[in-house]
User: Fold this.
Amino acid sequence: MFDSQSPLVSVIILTYEQESFIAKAIESVLAQKVNFDYEIIIGDDCSQDHTDSICQEYSDKYGFIHVLPRTQNLGVTANWCDCVQKASGKYLMMLDGDDYWTDTSKMQLQVDFMEHHPECVLCHTGADCLYMKSGHIRHINKRNVPEGRVQQMIMSGQEQMTSSTICYRTSSVIKHIPFDKYISEHFPCEDWPTIVILSGYGEIRYLPVVTAVYRVGHESITNQHDYDKIRSYWVQSRNMKRCLHDICPSLGVYDDDDWFDHAVYNTLLNAAYHNDDFPAAKEFASRNLLFSRRLATLCAKNLLMFKLYRLYYLMKK
Assistant:
């Protein structure tokens, strides 16, 4: 633990080869206006570009910024687990290395809220999307966001949160999150399963303000164009969901195998459009039965319609 300043908040930044974005992420934390001490813990997952040197420059300048050494790539989940277990703050705030905060009162707002609501395990806010290709920022107006003990809704995907807007109560995370299982079972992500598990032990609240921007359009763990990586991600996701049912008996019996089988082909189909790969699109569409009435599936049946839909698909990106 880095506890020399007894920080109230530990901001965890996970990054991997994000030299173009990481400085903006760090600066957005440094711009926060707060009346308490905080620390920044950066888990650079053995980047091969200049991400590490940029992070180290900030660490050399600010004593409360700690860059965790990595001699090999851990993967996003193991990286997160290590950072969390070294955090000293009463609260944990996440910031992906390619995202950034936009509201300089974000930290103060969420800490004040959590201090007055001990029944909450986490709170989150709204976020805007920055489309990398066009530079357009989309403002998303979230309404009627589920709050309280909403584990079943989160598990079903009815409510989604942007990781970079979340403030966790550290004691809840340390008490209830099985870090060893996250790693041994190769969970492909850390935020969603953590929210699912914690929502069974306390309330979740939404603060109706926009505090962050997340980037859309560059390749990431959830935006892949490599077919093998997509298949691997979905296999790991299915295993993660099975594990969550074991960890949280209140979720009931796991029975989503059919949905996962079709969802992977839906994702592969989108990748085929991106890759301009008609033969692959035709194959994936034929196996995409659950979404067989989607326009993307129908347009993959002949080359002309495939080309036309591809133009539409890329324009949306």
Notes: Strands lie at 9-15, 38-44, 65-67, 91-96, 100-101, 120-131, 137-138, 167-169, 203-216. The chain has two domains: 9-216, 227-316. The first strand starts at residue 9 and ends at 15.
